[in-house]
Amino acid sequence: MNSLSDLRSLDGSDVVVIGGGFGGLSTACYLADAGADVTLLEKNEQLGGRASRLEVDGFRFDMGPSWYLMPDVFERFFGHFGREPSEYYELTRLDPHYRIFFKDGDRVDMVPDLEANRETFESYEPGAGERFDEYLEKSKQNYEVGMEHFVYEDRNSITDFLDWNVAKNARGLSLIGSMQDHVEKYFDHPKLQQIMQYTLVFLGGAPNNTPALYNLMSHVDFNMGVYYPENGLGGVVDGVVELGEELGVDFRTDAPAAEIKGREGAFVTRTEDGEEFYSDYVVSNADYRHTEMELLPPEKRQYDADYWGSRTYAPSAFLLYLGVEGDVDPLAHHSLVLPTDWDDHFETIFEDPAWPDDPAYYLCVPSQTDDEVAPDGHSNLFALVPVAAGLEDTPELRQTYRDLVLDDIAANTGVDLRDRIVVEERFCVNDFADRYNSTQGTALGLAHTLRQTALFRPSHRSSAVDGLYFTGAFTTPGIGVPMCLISGQLTAEAMAESVA
Prior knowledge:
Keywords: Carotenoid biosynthesis, Oxidoreductase. It holds the Pfam family Amino_oxidase. It comes from Halobellus ruber. This is Phytoene desaturase. With 500 residues, the chain is of the alpha/beta class. The chain folds into three domains: 4-90 and 230-311 and 457-499, FAD/NAD(P)-binding domain; 115-224, Guanine Nucleotide Dissociation Inhibitor, domain 1 (Orthogonal Bundle), CATH 1.10.405; 312-436, CATH 3.90.660.20. The protein is 36% helix and 19% strand. The protein contains 17 helices and 19 strands. Strand 10 (257-263) and strand 11 form a beta hairpin. Helix 1 runs parallel beside helix 11 and helix 4 (128-151) crosses helix 10. The radius of gyration is 22 Å and the shape is globular.
């Protein structure tokens, strides 16, 4: 395996990075720090990719990611450059971490106090408090070993997994079975199972198709905490961009790539307005399928249409961005509204695509923590319903579903928004496809199914074009802001390895 100390082999190279999401921003920073001359081309008017911001009439919304998890990853990222996250933004630990409204009228808070959470588990099921401790201990072990030996190291071939050191570190990890299988070993109560599995939404999976290894997310949730960064996730984007500028990255917005020509040492990347950028290397943080099928000629593609058609894509989302008069108590900063049986909703995402009749969804109210995101006397809220990628998306369907979601919020949280909305924007499958060139309008990328995890995800290095690399959620380690930051490191390492 290569290491960050070897990146100096890229000193003096010219690199074009396509796409300004967290994967592209991270890669650009690592390469610039190594001495490369980096130009980043972003399709849209702002950097951040899916972590864009929407500002309307005094309301500021994070359009995509809104949870700040795994603070150690951000510390490690900034630490590589001799910085700390606090030099760019401050963090507030949320209390509660999140609130769950079950649709049978039950409500529960998960909080920073582990003893309180333990008592909550025990209240649902005798003995569940002790098993909560056992579950978190296993989750912590999986996190510590998994991150160091399987996330920060890019094991992209079967031989990497046959290494004795890998086998030794993998011993005891939850590598076999699904999350549903794993959680059922600890908890019988369906609500406790849901609490331990809600993070699968962030991974684009379902309990029965996501590997048990991802129980490590409970360590992230309960032990490491849930935070709100100053100015939201957009503030984190600003911090990484500021770091990139300090390192010398040239950021270009409103510059959608239209074509990649050439090879290592002689690339030409052409934008839609005809401007051409010459470089030794190209890194794409754009949607992997879009890059291969739209920016490259057929003879330079690694994967064909059949390959992309056979993949399992993470959900898209139906989003309502709402500016609301008055407060929205008892909604917390993060709230989840869950049917007591959510199997039907997951089925409409992965098995039989349809708009869910009884959706599980997420509500984000940053104005409960941040006074700057809404005018005085108002609340900032967005609702996110995971829906199937590729789902039919028309104005009429959106209107019908908008009404269903607002009715559902009123019925199951007691918060009636319908006559208080002063700002409303909608975002769904077609918008993900149009704004981000997202395959089937997925909100996240490739789902973390067993057959699409680790070495089964597309490679960071093109096997068809020397000098072309990929970063971001389609590659390892996968979906989520922290994972995309790490993907930037892995891509830079892959480039250095091929140059050395």
